[in-house]
Design brief:
homodimer; alpha/beta; Rossmann fold
Chain lengths: ~290, ~290
């Protein structure tokens, strides 16, 4: 029998700590950490995520502002919106909700965000720091959440075989690099991988970030493995992970559920980054004034 | 019997093509591609490398300038030197020979280079592009050389199991990301990897970039594998690779020798990047003037 990793409970614990730190920050600095979220268009899933992020900010004693731009916005309008938020000293963190409408280039938009306000950690400068293992200003939220969830099991990462299934810029690749930094032997698989089951079933720690409902099945899981399910697939049967939870749960040593696993921790990491952004902005202001 | 991948011959072929392109560029633009190399201190190996790079530039019809700073230079002196080269329009590529003396921070220095002059591809912005698979201005030279050497064998990369042994910022990690981009299933191993032989011997393509003489031995190599040896270990017996060449060469399908494998191709990639830098600078100048 595997232990279910309760991401929801972990996130609540972390959010309580962040709320205390945010309160301290407000009372000592006189500033309130503020996150700006830019939403382009009306993708229903994106609307849900943005609402959750806004609510989480407020519950943690931070402010949030949501800028909603129409689906047919031009790229330069989105860039202008970011530039105005870059110049607004009351805004500490800026996040562009992905995916963007197809006619807008994600890279053009993301790289306009000031690296010191890039709380999603997706700016090229922050990604460059991540690959080199330099202290990045901000770790991308989902990969950071994955690390926290694995650490919570007490299973040591060092020397373990880790398989990351999925190679997205937002999850798979940065997660692989963070696990490598913690001294795991890391394999990255994807749609072109031959014999996925053979590779995945060697993993002591298996990260599923493919975006295909229940794709990871029993024979792909090593007995006792830590299984982290990043999938959030909206189906008629509700939210479904990338892992066949019911099939796998008795073989895995630890497993995250969907929902209630990676999702809540990802939002908690965003709050953490926003608070860090505010603290850094305050420190910069302080050093300028003295 | 394996086929020896002749990196020296490949590099010569590439350099001939680059010399023709450089000549065309000079005659159409009236500018000569120019590489500036900064060498801090008097590490003998670094001196050899710098000399080779300078000579290679000249033989390809490009200019080079070498700035030698004393071993006890302060970090800010090295940074000043870079800033002056950043501002010099006649310089198209800037390279800081690594390693730097221990009292100087590599990251502080490298990130001062203008990304559009960063012909080594090590600036955070260029690394960030690399991880995301965006067109980077410049690919790091050794990883780019590795890709060319693998492609020269005719062995398809897509779907293959690749094992990269070594996780440096300059070779291991960027090489892994480039191979992933070409749809290999990539595993990164290092000093903390448990059962290296077991993992490495599954590789269809094995990249050795550890810096330990003859560490990759027969039992770590799958019969027929492509073996790329990045090691350049100076020993009493001369230059020795990370692969036990004599022991492995009959089992591998293809193998690079040391010297004469990765090294010459790395320098050819640097020349390629320098020419690209000059072409880009010229295009920017042109678009400004019109």
């Amino acid at each position: 029998m595997s232990k279910i990793i309760d991401g929801k409970e972990m996130a609540e614990g972390l959010r309580k700590k962040l709320a205390i730190k945010a309160e301290e920050f407000v009372s000592t600095s006189g500033r309130i950490p503020k996150l700006a979220v830019i939403l382009v268009g009306d993708n229903p899933a994106s609307q849900v995520y943005v609402r959750m992020k806004k609510k989480a900010c407020e519950e943690t004693g931070m402010r949030s502002v949501v800028m909603v731009l129409p689906e047919d916005s031009e790229e330069k309008e989105v860039i202008s919106a970011i530039e105005s938020l870059n110049g607004d000293d009351s805004v500490h963190g800026i996040l562009v909700q992905l995916p963007l409408p197809r006619h807008i280039s994600e890279k053009n938009v993301i790289n306009v965000i000031l690296p010191e306000k890039d709380v999603d950690g997706l700016h090229n400068v922050n990604m460059g720091k991540l690959i080199k293992g330099e202290e990045p200003l901000f770790l991308p939220c989902t990969p950071a959440a994955i690390i926290e969830l694995v650490l919570s099991t007490g299973v040591e990462i060092k020397g373990k075989q880790v398989v990351v299934v999925g190679r997205s810029n937002i999850v798979g690749k940065p997660a692989a690099l963070l696990l490598l930094q913690r001294h795991a032997t890391v394999t990255i698989c994807h749609s072109r991988t031959v014999n996925l089951a053979g590779v995945a079933s060697q993993a002591d720690i298996l990260i599923a970030a493919i975006g295909k409902p229940r794709m990871i099945t029993l024979e792909m899981v090593k007995p006792g493995a830590v299984v982290i399910d990043v999938g959030v697939n909206r189906t008629d049967a509700g939210l479904i992970g990338d892992v066949d939870f019911d099939g796998v749960k008795d073989r895995a040593g630890f497993i995250t559920p969907v929902p209630g696993g990676v999702g809540p921790m990802t939002i908690a990491m965003l709050l953490k980054n926003t608070l860090i952004a505010a603290q850094l902005a305050n420190a910069r202001q302080f050093s300028k004034g003295h």
